[in-house]
Specification:
Blueprint: H1 12-28, H2 35-56, H3 65-90
Helix pairs in contact: 1-2
């Protein structure tokens, strides 16, 4: 018996079709105009697409176990970085600084 898990054939064209359909949904989502729905569907679809890619194209089920642990560790550090930096990015002012508002001004063209 092989030391690797049993490997079933993957229909890559079908997985590509699913990923393409999810892409269309995530692009069309902002046209609804509902910010909460857009964010929830965008992150939900991103998670599903990441899972499909990892499962079907990265072949983690036949990699050594440490490769999966390494991937999970990187994901945890990425989430910690996002959670640690996002509150500062979302604030518009702080105790010793003010985040300047972005104003788009029309500037005359210089020749």
């Amino acid at each position: 018996m092989s030391e690797h898990a049993e490997h079933h054939p993957v229909n890559y064209f079908r997985v590509w079709q699913i990923l393409l359909g999810l892409l269309v949904i995530s692009v069309a989502g902002p046209f609804l105009g509902i910010k909460a729905v857009t964010l929830i569907t965008a992150f939900g679809i991103a998670i599903v697409k990441a899972y499909l890619v990892a499962k079907n194209f990265m072949h983690l089920n036949i990699e050594p176990r440490y490769a999966v642990y390494l991937l999970l560790t990187v994901l945890v550090f990425m989430l910690l970085f996002f959670a640690g930096s996002s509150p500062d990015v979302m604030k518009h002012e702080g105790a010793n600084w003010i985040k300047p508002a972005v104003h788009v001004e029309s500037t005359p063209a210089h020749h």
